[in-house]
Amino acid sequence: MWLPKLGILTAYVVLGVTVTLSADEKDCFCKIPLKGEVDDCSCKIESLDSFNNLKIFPRLHSLLNKDYFRFFKVNLKRPCPFWGDDGRCALRDCHVDKCSEDQLPPGYKESKQEENKYTKEAQEQLHTDCKEQKELGGIDKTISSEDRESFKSWSKYDDAQDNFCELDDDNSADMEYVDLTLNPERYTGYKGESAWRIWRTIYQENCFKPDTPVPGYGPAEARGAEGKALQSGLDLMRSLKGMCLEKRVFFRMISGLHTSINVHLSAKNYLPAANGYGKGTWGPNVEEFQKRFDPETTNGEGPQRLKNLYFTYLVELRALAKAAPYLEQEDFFTGDEKEDNETRNAVKDLLKIIKSFPDQFDESRLFQGNNKEAQQLKEEFRKLFRNISVIMDCVGCDKCKLWGKTQTQGMGTALKILFSGDTMGPDSTVDAQQKKNFQLRRSEIVSLFNAFGRLSTSIKEVDVFRQLIKEKDST
Fold first, then answer.
1. What is the pLDDT of residues 284-309, one digit of tens each?
2. What DSSP letter does each residue of 154-167 carry, written as one string?
3. Which segments are annotated as binding site?
4. What pTM was estimated for this model as a whole?
5. Residues with a known catalytic role
6. What 3-state class would DSSP assign to 470?
7. Lesser CB count within 10 Å: N end or C end of the chain?
């Protein structure tokens, strides 16, 4: 999906403030790096660039190639609950290659599932329970069909209290392992009404609305599906100053995710062979990047969208830091002892670097107080994000759906972490001692790290585009 060119302007309205660009800035906003503080945070973009590109990205890139994080179990066949199937993406690059059992690590193979299902402690407890049951006599295990349905409802209710995403059912026959490294996120050609309906539904129906209506621009309405989706995002962005902090955070996270996806699609774009013959390559498309982020093609909003990318990065960075004590106790089990040891050490090394970052996002500023209004806002926040996670089942391109589900689930896991634990704030943590009240599924951990990996890669790619544009303009 790309944003249409809106015409040459020298003054733009950004968050309600008129900004006039110099001739150099108007020609190419990437001639100079983004500067200043990330909105609603004290962190400066310049320090984040250096921290991510030099310290986080190399470690994370290596970690995500480990088996534990490569193999993601997902259901790509869940039907869209909001509208009928309007056709699948028929392009070859929309296809996702599934894993056969012989490609999986030993601990993930079906024949090993049951023996590896429980930890050593759980297995010992299970043995004790079975022994006691044998001694005390059999237990009537019959359950009526009505009770079974009730249990399902209870489970869904319990999940809804903690989770910001609707997670796939691990027991579904449609769950399949996918090797994320063999199905990279890149431009597939998926566009048009089906693609724009996804973002239009997210922005128009599942983002907080400003208290004061923001008038739309007529020309955007006339551009059909693309214009309406673009307009809804622009209107919300302009109205942020009239929203409370929680609503601004929600929008900036969604905008940052959208930005990150657009950076990936520009960075891994299909480039035809130079001579017009033979197989093309995948690489950075400067023109595509400028269409999506240059002020002239985004009504001045491109730089703000990129700032929202940094904001989303900080939120997920903070979630990893908060969950570090919990994650440091994780086994990261795949059945390959050598690989698992390397993964545990790599995770601890990454978390040590993440915790060293001085300007962590402060979640304690959100939903302050125990009053009814704050709790209602928090529940609305959770409900809207769960809806967005479900909308990913409506994506018509399997590869886009795979990465949409991975990244929204990762973001939802980050939110679950931030609002868990006994306290909130930069010094609070979630540790292994709180496992009775806080648990992360394997799929949540895999999606959390991969979602953060996508944001980290985006920030790295923005720097690459900045250099490419400078080179292009100097020739």
1. 999 999 999 998 888 888 888 999 99
2. HHHHHHHHH-SS--
3. 186, 188, 199, 255, 258, 292
4. 0.79
5. 397, 400
6. helix
7. C
